[in-house]
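Tokens help. Consider this.
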Amino acid sequence: MKRNLIFIGIILLISIVVYGIFQYNKPHRDIASEKSSYDLSADDLYKEFEQDVDKASMQYADKVITFAGTISNVEQNQNGGYNILLKGEKGVINCEVDAAPDLDKKKLSANSHVKIKGLCVGFDDLLQELQFKKCHIVQ
């Protein structure tokens, strides 16, 4: 009986280690090649979060969304990428764009229209902005 418990414990430990190694080496999501779950304007997207944050978070969080809007500001971040702020009627959408050699910052100027695809992180109550990461410029 004691021998069986030790054997089951060793099998369980090996299973946990193998699962951990598998999860650690799991490839990252490629947002650029994923199909968008939703295609909206920046204003419509922000309005949905403004009306009901919990409902919109359940619907959009951790999903790839394509949205279009007008650029308010572009800043380079510490990772070599850019933070693009899209202005709306009532709020801001913060898009974190990864560093890419084909990204032309000159085309990303204030008041220009842009279409972005990114992973929705959620709504930041403190900053009153909708946040996206792993964004890519579609147009």
Q: What stands out?
A: Residues 2-24 form the longest helix (23 residues).
